[in-house]
């Protein structure tokens, strides 16, 4: 089903389906069971579920590896971090997602790792920091500064040094970037975002092309109990079927909004890599004005999440754990699939308060 002759959009629609036998359902069913009859792949609900399998098959096919679903993106991150040897070095972006940095800093505070924060756009700095490290953690683009890393070059240099590379591919999705093909060892997703796409799921995933690494990650999931729910996996599988359609529409909207913002006299520091559905910018008047702008919109929802069919925005530094490198008045806008003129009208009307 997912051979090289098929496009990613076709794989998104068709992978992870039940076998086409007479009377079989078109979609994998929601299996609500804590125990299964022995003799199959799993006999206990902490080790496997048919709804997990369907989601893992389609995401793995899209990323070019084997996927494992987790209870959340944070749980997926933790499973990868758990593979780092004691007191080994981990390289990560200084402007990474705050939840990721909270985990890494806590591990560093406890003496479990040597944390090295870098400017992910400075490729040589990343390579130098990775020379004797156990893991390079990349976000590309980063959240919320939209910084893009040279994943292929960093992965090649890291491989020469014997350093593993993990890439958070939440913003790009496998339709815009396939880190395993670029040399990464792990791909991590907050599948709550674009993968599922409807703001109704908390779910994470790790994908790897290495069988030994897959077994190690699977063991972390089972032993620590960071397992997803059957309903969440079923919803995410349904969501991923339309990923290509949603992504194309929202990306076109985001590109147009970013272009129009360039002419605004009340915003600066517009960050948009030219693709994807997320952009950010700084609002004149400081954090108080940025907060006011995001709270008075009608079409755009003031919310902390992203990647859904609806547009959302927020001032990121309102969160205490947000990295200091994020400007106080920076607004992150996740562009949805609404009519672009309606989104732009709401942006203009909200910015008019300045």
From TrEMBL:
GO terms for biological process: cysteine biosynthetic process via cystathionine; transsulfuration. GO terms for molecular function: cystathionine gamma-lyase activity; cystathionine gamma-synthase activity; pyridoxal phosphate binding. Residues 1-25 are annotated as: Disordered. Gene3D superfamilies: Aspartate Aminotransferase, domain 1 (3.90.1150.10), Type I PLP-dependent aspartate aminotransferase-like (Major domain) (3.40.640.10). The modification N6-(pyridoxal phosphate)lysine is found at residue 193. SUPFAM superfamilies: PLP-dependent transferases. Residues 1-11 have a biased composition (Polar residues). InterPro entries: Cys/Met-Metab_PyrdxlP-dep_enz, PyrdxlP-dep_Trfase, PyrdxlP-dep_Trfase_major, PyrdxlP-dep_Trfase_small. Its cofactor is pyridoxal 5'-phosphate. GO terms for cellular component: cytoplasm. The keyword Nucleus does not apply. Keywords: Pyridoxal phosphate. Belongs to the trans-sulfuration enzymes family. This is Cystathionine gamma-synthase. It comes from Aeromicrobium erythreum.
